[in-house]
Amino acid sequence: MKRLTICVFLMFLSVQAGIAAQFALGLNAGYRYLDDPFLGEIYGDGYVFEPYIRYAPSSSFALELAYEGGYKKSAPVGLFQENSTLTVDGFQLSGIVRVPFLRIRNVSTYFKLGIGYYFYKQDIDSEFVRQQVDHHKWTTIIGGGVNIHLFRGLFLTAEVKSIPLRVKPFEINVDLGGIRILFGIGYQFWL
Amino acid sequence: MIKNKLLKAIFLTIFLGILITNGISQREGKISPRLLQAFDNKSHTETLTAWIYFRDKGPGKFEKMEEVKMGLNVHAMNRRLRHGFDSLIDEHDLPVYEPYLDSIEQFVTRIRHASRWLNAASVEATRQSLETISEFRFVQKVDEVMTYTFHEPEEEAPTDTETGQIPRSDLSGALLFDYGMSLSQIDQLNIPPLHNLGFSGSGVLVCLLDSGVNNLNHQALDHIDIAATWDFVNGDANVFDESDQRGSGDHGTYTLGAIAGYEPGKLIGPAFGASFLLGKTENTDSERHIEEDHWIAGAEWADTLGADIISSSLGYRGQFSSGEADYSWEEMDGETTVVAQGANIAASRGILIVNCAGNEGGNSSGRNTLVSPADCDLVLAAGAVNSQGYRTGFSSIGPTADGRIKPDVMAMGESVYTAAPSAVDEYELVDGTSLSAPLAAGVAALLLEINPSWTNQDIITAMKSTASRSESPDNGYGWGIVDAQKAAFFPAGNLHAPLHFAVSRIPNDYGFFYQYVDRLEWAPNPRNEDRVAAYRIYAKQLEFQDQPFEFVAEIDSQTYSFLRRGLLEDETFLYKITSVDVAGKESGPNYARR
Predict the structure, then answer these.
(1) Are the Cβ atoms of B512 and A133 closer than 8 angstroms?
(2) Which of A82, B65, B194, B396 fits a disulfide with B369 by CB distance 3.0 to 4.6 angstroms?
(3) Which residue, among B84, B429, B152, has the nearest Cα to B290 in the 3D structure?
(4) How far apart are CA A184 and CA A48, in angstroms?
C-alpha cells in the first residue's frame, strides 16, 4: 500500500510542477478466469470492473492506477456445503508503453507491465469454522490492449492481462490468478 | 617421629580396611542370596542368567513421560482409561534408561530383555561380570532369573468324586453353530447363547503367551486375526517352529485352538472372532523349560500393543530340574515371584490375565500347589474339570500363602478337543489346566465385547459371582465352573456402555484450509434393551496435560453416529461415550481415540 501511495503522490507532484501531461479516466469491465481448480469448481470465473486513471507524461508512455473489483461469488463449500462467499479485489499500478503494431488511424496498441496489491477474503457461514481467510498479497501484472480513439478525447479499450496470484494463507496453496478480458470506455484530457 | 609414622600407618590400615569391607558388603548386599548360592555352583567363567535392577530411570522423567504418553497405543489408552488410569501412564511405563544398559552391555554376554516395569535387564553373564556390575552406583540389585520345568498332567483318573456341575442339557435346536466334538467344553461354560447373539470376541485383543504356534495353517486356525507375533525366546517375529531355533509350538497350537478355533462341525472356540497377539515366551526343548524374564517381556509387549486379555498357560513353580531354583509354596502370595510382580503391574494397567492354576494336583498337607502368577489377586486362575464337571486330579489347589481362595474358576481341562500340531485337518484331545485357561480367557473376551466398559476386576467378579459354586467357593474348585451367559449379563439392571465405539477423522476442504471432522460411531448394547434415552459424548484433548473430559453432545437413543466438526489437524482427542436412561443416570464409559 505504501508503494502505491508513493506512485500516486509522484503523479500528483508532476502535475503540480506544471509539466503538461495527458490524463485519462476510464472504466473497463469484463471477465476474469480463476485458475485454482478446486476453487474454480466451487466459485467459478466471474465478472469484474476496473475504473482507472492514466497519466501520460509522453506520447509513448503512461502510468495507470486502477482498481479491480466486482469478483464476489457465493457458493456452498466443504463437506457440509456451508454457504460461503469469495471476494477478490485489488489495486493495480502499471506502466503502459505504446507499441505501434497496427498502422490504423485512431487505433493504438500498448503493452502493460505492473504490480498489483490484491485482497482476498472468504466468508463461510458456519459456527464451526475457526480460520478466517482475509489476506492480501502483492503480485505482478502483464498484459496488452488496443485503444480506439473516437472523438473529443473519448476512446474505447480492449485489453487482455494476466494477473498471477498464488497465495497460501494456511496449509493449502491456492491460485487466485487468472486471465482478464476487459472492454471499456475512457476519456483523455490535458492538464 | 617413628611413633608418629606408626600411628599414621595404623590409621591408614584401619581406614582402608573399612573402605574395602564396606565395598564388599555393599556389593554382597546388592546380590541376592539366591544368586550368591548359584555362584557357589558355578565357576567364574560359567554363564548365569540374572536380573540387573536399576535404581532409577535416569534424568528428564517428565519429558519422557509426556513422550511415552503421546506414543501410547490407542487400544492401550482406552484400556487404561476404562480402569480409571486417568493420567494414562506412570513411571513403570518409562523405558529403562539407555545409558545404564550401555554401561552393562560390555560386561555381559547378552542382554536378553530390558523390563520397563521392573526397571531391570535380564542378562547372561559370568559371575565375575555380575560382581563387577553390582558395584555400579546405578545398580540396585542383582538377582537370579528363575527357570522352571512346567509339568504336563500325567494320565490319571479324576480323584474328585464330587460333582462340579451337571452338563447342560436340552440344546437341541438352540445352537447356531455346529460345535462338533468341542461342544462339551463350550456347552459346559454356557457359551452357545452368547454365540447365538452374534458375539465372538470381536474387537477384543487377546495375547496368548505360550510356546509359539506351529500350525497356524490349520483349518480351524487360519481365520484368526493375528495382530502381531514375537518370539521372546529366540528374539525374532517368527513363532513357528524353526529348525535352527529353540522350542516347539505344539502347546501353543493346542491353546490357540481351544480359545479361537473355528471349523464348524469340528471345533469352535469361545472367542473365534477376537484378534490375537502371539508371544512365544516358552522354550519347550527340555520338557517345558521356562524362564520368567520371557514372560515379563511378553506381558510388557502385550501392554504396549494394547492387549485387553493375556491368556497364559504357563506357570512358575513345580518340581525343578537339577540346578534350577524353586519358589516355595509360602512364596505363592501373589507378590513375591517376579512374574507375580509383573502380572500385578499388568493388571494395574487394566489387562486381564487368565492363567492356568497349574498341573501339580492336590496334596494332603494343606499347602497350595499353585503356580505363579495364578497366585495373584487380579489374575483369574483357571483350574481343570472334566466333561462331567469333576475337578481333575492334576488341577492345582489353593489357598494362596496369604489365605485367598484359589483357583478362581474352572473350565474343562481333560480331553479338551483342539487343533493338532501335526496336520492341518487333525484334532486332538488334550489334558491340562493349560487348556482351561484359554477356555476361560475366551469367555472373558466375550464378556468384554458385550460389556466394553468393564474393568478386569468387573470381569473377574462377574465370572466368579455367576460360576457354579459361587455360593460356597473352595480351594479345589474356586467359585466353580464358568457360566458365560450369566456372567455376561451380570449384574442385571445396570445400564451399559454402547458397543464398538470408534472414531475416524475426515478432512473438510474449504479451499484455503482444511478443518477436520471426527466421525464417531457406536452400536447399541443389547443388554440395555429399550432403557437408553440418549447417548452422551465427552472429549478430552490429548495435547494438554491433565485436561478433563468435556461434554460434547447428547445424541438421541436411535442415532448411532455423531460428527464433531471444526477440528484442526494437530488436535487429537480421546472420546468417551455413555448410555443415559430417562432419569439421567449414565452407564460406565466406552472410549475411542482417533
Answers:
(1) yes
(2) B396
(3) B152
(4) 12
From the list B510, B514, B568, which residue is nearest A124 (CB)?
B510
How distant, in Å, are the alpha carbons of B176, B289, B296, B417 from that of B179?
9, 34, 35, 10
**Per-domain residue ranges of chain A:** 2-10+24-190
Using H for helix, E for strand and C for coil, what is the string for B308-377? CEEEECCCECCCCCCCCCCCCHHHCCCCCCHHHHHHHHHHHCCCEEEEECCCCCCCCCCCCCCCECCCCC
Same domain, B304 and B203: yes
Place of cell 474356586: B478
Cα B448 from Cα B487, distance rounded (Å): 11
Q: At what angle are helices B338-348 and B292-304 packed, to 10 degrees?
A: 10
> Cis ω on the peptide bond leading into residue B158 (within 30° of 0)?
no
Q: With contacts defined as CB-CB under 8 Å, which chain B residues touch A121? A: none
Q: Render pLDDT for B136-184 as a digit per residue (tens, 0 to 9).
A: 999 999 998 887 666 677 654 444 544 444 445 454 447 789 999 999 9
Same domain? For B93 and B213 the reply is no
Query: Residues in chain A whose beta carbon is closer than 8 A to a beta carbon of chain B?
Result: 36, 38-39, 42, 77-80, 84, 86, 122, 124, 126-131, 133, 167, 169-172, 174
Q: Which residue's entry shows cell 535404581? A: B55
- Residues B249-261: pLDDT tens digits? 789 999 999 999 9
**A48 φ, ψ to 5°?**
-135, 160
Is there a contact between B512 and A174 if contact means CB atoms under 8 Å apart? yes
Cβ <8 Å between B510 and A128: no
**Overall domain count for chain B:** 4
Distance CA B129, CA B125 (A): 6
Residue-wise pLDDT for B259-318, tens only, equals 999 999 999 999 999 999 999 988 765 444 567 889 999 999 999 999 999 999 887 675
Interface test with chain A among B512, B568, B570, by most A beta carbons within 10 Å? B512
Q: Are residues B303 and B403 in the same domain?
A: yes
Burial readout B467-481 (b: 16 or more C-beta within 10 A, e: otherwise): bbbbeebbbbbbbbb
Cα–Cα distance measured from residue A118 to residue A88, given in angstroms and rounded to the nearest whole number = 7
| The domain boundary residue, chosen from B488, B514, B541 | B488
Closest CA to B225 of B197, B203, B250, B209: B203
Contact B517 A170 (CB under 8 A): no
The minimal CB distance from A171 to the residues B514, B565, B566 is found for B514
Cβ–Cβ below 8 Å for B513 and A38: no
CB spacing of A78 vs B510 below 8 angstroms: yes
Sheet order of strands, B120-126 included? B110-115, B120-126, B47-54, B139-144
* In-domain check, residue B169: no
Residue spans of chain A under pLDDT 50: 3, 6, 10, 13-14, 16-18
| Domain A2-10+24-190 belongs in CATH node 2.40.160.20 | yes
Domain span including residue B285: 190-488
Q: Which of B504, B509, B510, B564 to mutate to test the interface with A (most CBs of A within 10 A)?
A: B510
Element (H, E) at B423: none
Cβ-Cβ contacts under 8 Å for B129 (sequence gap 6 or more): B107, B108
d(C-alpha B297, C-alpha B342), whole Å: 9
Residues B228, B237: Cα–Cα separation, whole Å: 8
B344: closest CA among B378, B306, B370, B315? B378
Residues B397, B271 share a domain? yes
Query: Nearest CA to A26 among A53, A47, A49, A65?
Result: A53
How high is the ipTM of this complex?
A: 0.86
Contact A174 B510 (CB under 8 A): no
